[in-house]
Amino acid sequence: MGLDARLGALGLALGQVDDLRIELENVRWSRWRARRATVVCRDVHVNPPATLVSSPVEFRVEVAHSDIPELQLVSWLPLTVKLVGSELHVRLHRWLPARVFAVPELPRGIQLTGVEQLDDHFVLTGAAPVLRERLTFGQLAAVLRRLASIQSRTRSDTTSGISIWGT
């Protein structure tokens, strides 16, 4: 898991984190597995009472053809992947009908926005205009403590950004 955040002393004191990027590998997503998932939260801040807000949120997930159970037997064939609403239409050949797969539900109101096809995998992208997550005061204090301790260990208070990996 990787975490990349932009922090400043004043912003942190005010509950403002700016951008936060989270990268995960080998993610289980419903019945699917994903090689990598990346979530980028922009303009992250805390609103009273203890609500974490990000606006917007961008989502990207890489899925190998062989990691979709229904495609495992044919993953060696060249596939054409198309996103139609919240479904993937996978075609083995232009003269064969497409197989339709429902994409697992995305959390927190994230909507699918596109698909990019690569040789052995495809990349789904999504976004949400705003994400609001209510935290208990204990959870909020723990998040701010952790960010403050990372800030003090990595750079001086005048630095505008940090990068944390392996947390």
Q: Any overview of this molecule?
A:
By secondary structure, the chain is mainly β. It has 2 helices and 12 strands, in the order βαββββββββββαβ.
Enumerate the spans where pLDDT stays under 50 for 5 or more consecutive residues: 155-167
| Helical percentage | 10-25%
Taking all Cα atoms into account, the compactness measure Rg is 19 Å
Percentage of residues in strands: over 45%
Instruction: Note the total helix count.
Output: 2
Structural class: mainly beta
The profile of the biggest β sheet is: 9 strands, antiparallel
Task: Give the number of DSSP strands.
Answer: 12
Distance between the termini: 6 Å
Structure keywords:
14% helix; elongated; mainly beta; three-stranded antiparallel sheet; nine-stranded antiparallel sheet
Topology summary:
Layout: E1 2-5, H1 9-13, E2 16-29, E3 32-47, E4 51-54, E5 57-64, E6 80-84, E7 87-91, E8 99-102, E9 111-117, E10 121-128, E11 131-134, H2 137-154, E12 162-165
Antiparallel strand pairs: 1-2, 1-12, 2-3, 3-4, 3-5, 4-11, 5-10, 6-7, 7-8, 9-10
Provide a short characterization of the protein structure.
By secondary structure, the protein is mostly beta strands. The protein has 2 helices and 12 strands.
